[in-house]
Fold each of these.
Amino acid sequence: MKLFFASDLHGSLPATEKVLAEYQKSGAETLVILGDVLNHGPRNPVPQGYNPPAVAELLNQYADQIIAVRGNCDSEVDQMLLSFPMMMDYAWVMLPSGQRLFLTHGHLYNASKRPPLREGDLIAHGHTHIPVAELNDGQYIFNPGSITFPRNGFAASYGLLEDNHLSVVTFDGEILAKTLIA
C-alpha cells in the first residue's frame, strides 16, 4: 500500500497541478488530503494562481482516489464544488500492519493534542505547514508540510507512506523528514 499526502492547498491552481503531477508519478493508489483545500483563509495572503473553482474541477477528476478531511478554512460551500467528501474533521484508516492511521487537519487534533491512540498508531495532520515524520511517545507523528504556504524556511512538500516508511519530500526530491514504522 502506498499513500500520497497533501495538505494546505489553499485554492492555488499551480500548487494543485504540481501535487497531482507528483501523485501520478508516485504510483500511489490513494491521495490523502489533510484539509484547507479551496480557501486561503483570513490569515494567509491570496496565493499565487488562486482559483478555487479550477482546483475543485481538477481534484474532482481524482474523486475515487481521494480521502480528505476538513481543515479550518474549509466550509460547506466548498464541499458543494467537490465530488468527494471532505467535511469530516477526521478519518481512520486501518493499515495492513494492524496499526491505525488517524487523519485530521491539525486545528482540532495534532501532535500536542492527540485522540486516543494506541502504541504504534499514527496521526497525520497538516495545519502548521511544517514537515514532520517522527516517533513520539510511542506514536508516529506525520505532517507533509504545505504545498502552497510552506513555513519556517522549508520548501513546498508532500508526504508518502510506503514500505513502512513515512517521508516528507520536496518537489525537487529532497527528503525533509523520514521515519521507519515498526
Amino acid sequence: MDQTALGDEGKTRCRWAAAEVEFPHYHDTEWGFPVDDDTKLFEKICLEGFQSGLSWRTILVKRENFRAAFAGFDIDKIAAFGDADVERLLKDAGIVRHRGKIVSTINNAKRAQEMRRQYGSLGAFFWKYEPDPVEHGKRGTVSTTPESVQLSKDLKKLGWSFVGPTTVYAFMQAMGMVNDHGADCFVRGQCQVARATFERPRAS
C-alpha cells in the first residue's frame, strides 16, 4: 500500500498523518526530526510507554495535561515523586490513569538520573543505537528492528520499564533516530537535512 497521501492543501504526507486532525502538525514539525535534549527525550519515551495498548491520538490530545501532571517531564522532579503523587495522578482525568504506567514513569526518571551520571546525557546513550541509514532504508515498514530490540533489552537491564521493542522503535521514530517518512512525503527531505546537520551527542 502507498505510504503517502495527498492532503487538502496539496502537500503529500505519510498516510497515517491524515487519520486524525491532530496529526498533521505533529507529523510536519516533530516526528522524525532529531532530538538530543534530555527533557524532550524523556517525555517522548514516557509518552510512548503510556501509548502502549492505546491510540497515539489518545496520548497526543492529552500531551499538555501530561506535561502539567508530570512537572514538564523534568527528570529530577519526577524522580522525587512519592506515593502521594501516584495517588494524585490516578485521580487526574487529564492523563491516562494507569497505575503501572505512572509508577513506571517515576521509576524511569530515577533510572534516567543514573544514565545521565554514567553517560553525561540521555542522548549520549540513546544515539548509540542509531542504525545505518542505508541498511535501515531497505527494511520497509516495520514495527521493530534489531536496534530497537537491543535498546529495549539494554534499557530493561538498567531497570527501565514499559520499554518493549515496539515501544522503543516508536520512540526511535519520534526522536529522529530513523527517518521513516514515506519516500514522497514532503517532510522526508527536511528530516534528511536536519539529520545531516545534527551533531550526535557523545558520552562525556
Amino acid sequence: MRGATGGVQRKVQDVYGSAYYVHCYAHQLNLIMQQATSHIPKIGQFFSDVGGFSTFFSKSFKQTAVLDEVVAHRLPGASTTRWNFHSRAVNTVYEHKDELVKCFQTIRDRGDFDAISKREAGGFMRMLEDEVFCFILALFHKTMPHVDMLFNHLQKRNIDSVFIAGITQRFTHSIQAIRDSVPSLVEDEEYRGPVQEPPLKKRRAMGEETQQHLAIEVCDTIMSHAKERFSFTNHLISATLLQGDLFPQHSRKFRIQH
C-alpha cells in the first residue's frame, strides 16, 4: 500500500499532490524498539536468547509437557516484526524465572531426554542464573509496560497528530523517569540476580557502574528514536492548519496506514 510508484500512496498523491504519507504508527513503534536495541550488542544478544526459550519448547512435545507440569504457563513465540511478542516473552520469563530454572533442571536430570536437549536445558539454566541476563531482563520488565501502553494507543482507529504528540510525550517522560531512577534500580536485588546461590568462584560479569551505563544507554536510545520517529507530528499539525486556511475546499486529511 505504501508503494511510491504504484501503491495506494502513489494513487492518492496523483490526485492530491500535497497529501502526506504517514506510516502505520504502531509499526513505527516496532521499528523504534528494534532500532533502539539492535545496535547495543548485549541487548541484541539478550532478545535473541529470550526468543530461544519458546523455540526450545516448541521443538518437542515432551519438553512442552514438562513446561506445563512445572511452570504451568506457555511461552509466547517471538516475532521480529511485532514488538509486543518480545514484551510478552520478557514478562513471562521474568515472572516465572524460578519455575523455569526447575523446569530446565528437570529436563537435564531426567534420563528419557536426549543429550542435545539436556545440553540445551543446562545452557538455559546458566542463562537464567547469569548476572547480565537477569539485569537486562529486570530492566525491560520495568520498561515494557510503557511500550505496551503506547502500542495499544497507537492501534486505535480514531487517532490524529495531536493525540500522537501527546501520548509520545507521556511515553518519553515515563522512560526518562526510569532513566533517572537507574542508580537506585541497579542497587535493587532483582537487578543483580542470579536466582540461585552463585558458585563460590563466580566472576562478577558486570559492575554496577557498567550496569548503569547500559541502562542509561537503553533509555536514551529509546527516547531519541521515539522523538525522531514521531517528530513529524508537529509538522503535520502546522501543515494541516495551513492547508485548511489557504485551501478550505481541500482541508480533508488523508492518512494511509501500512
Amino acid sequence: MDFRVLPSGNLTLTNLTAPGCLCGDDTDLSTISLGIRDGMLCAPAADLPAVDMRGAMVFPAFVDMHTHLDKGHIWRRAPNPDGTFDGALAAVEADRTANWSGSDIRARMDFALRCAWAHGTRAIRTHLDSIGPQAAISFPEFTRLRDEWAGRIELQAACLTLIDRIDPDGGGEFADLVDLVAQSRGVLGCVTFPDARLRDRLRAFFDHAGRRGLETDFHSDETGDPDSASLRVIAETVLETGFDAPVTVGHCCSLAMQPDAEWRHTLDLVARAGINIVSLPMCNQYLQDRVGGRTPRWRGVTLVHEMAARGINVSFASDNTRDPFYAYGDLDMIEVMREATRIAHLDHSRTDWTNAFLTSPARACGFDAPGLVPGAPADLVICRARDWTELFARPQSDRIVLRAGRQIDRSLPDYAELDHLMR
C-alpha cells in the first residue's frame, strides 16, 4: 500500500497506534481499529473493507488555540532587526500602520488557514491587533473568513489591546472595542504588564466582559522579569469578582524566573480560579532572553509541569507565524507538539500530554473535541510513524489528513502567492 493514498469510501483502518489517553486508558500507546462509514467513525464491521495501517499513529484533527493570523507572513517586508521582543513590537507597529488594509489582512489570513488545513487543524483561535482604527478593519475581514471556512476550520477571534488603554472609570475607546467584539461574536482580550492601576483596570475589563457575556483571553508576563506578576493579579481579580466565563492566559514566561514561594502561590490561585493556560514554546524560545553576543540562559516557557500537577488546564499552540515575533512556523500542530516535547521535556513525564494539543484547548475555547469514538466525525491525522520517537524524529510531511472520512489534498500554498504584498 502507498501510505499516502487510502482507498475511498467506507472502510475499517486496522492496526493503528493511538495515544492511550485518547482511548480511555492510562497506557502510553494503544493499538486500535477505526471504522469509517458515511464520514463518521464507527465500530469495525464485517461489511467494511479492512486496510492494515501497519502501526501508523492516528490523532483527531488538532486545535490551535493561540495564533496571530493578522500578523502572519509579513517577515519579508517587516523583519525583526535583532530578534528581540522590542524589535518585534517596533517592526509590527510600523508594518501595521503602513500596510494592514482589509485586502492585505484577508490575503495573509486565508493563506495561513490553507496551511493549517493541509496540516490537519480543525479549529483555531486568533488574536487580532485592535489598537486605534485597526479593529474596525480586521474584525469584518475575519468574520467573512469565518463564514467562508465554516465546515472546514472553526474560527474564533480575540481582540488584542493593551491593559493601559482600559479606563478603570469606564467608557472611552475600550468600550467601543467591546461593542465591536460582542457584535462579531468574539473574545475579549488584552496584554497585561506591570501597571500602577492594573487591578482597577482588570476589574473594569471583567465588568465589560461580564455585562456582554464575553469570554476572555490575555497575553501576560511575556518576559523574563520576575517582577512581572500580572497572572497572579488576574487570578485574584477573577476570584474577587466571581467572574464565571472562561478565562485564558497565554505565555506567563516570568513564572519560571520567580522564587518558589511566589510561583507556587500564583499557581494555587490560578487553579482555584479555574483559569486556562496556553504555552507558546516556539515563539517564547525565539524571543526570550535574546541578547546580542550572549547565549540564552533559559527556554522561555512557563511552568507547564507544575500547572498540570495542580489540575490546571494547560495547552500548547502555534502563536506567531513568519512575522517579527517568530520568523518561522506554518500553523502545523505536529510541529508544535514535537517542539513542545523537546523544549518543555514533555517526554519521560505524564502519558496524557497529547490532550494539550486536542481536548485541553478545545475545552478552553469551547470548541468540539469529538475524539476517536464511534459517532465522531472521521477527521483524522494519520502519520507513518509507529511510536513517539519515529513521530518526533521526522516532520511527518507524508501524513494523511481525513476530513469527514475523505482524504484531503495536502498541497501547501506557494509563498509566491504573497509576493505582491511584499513590495
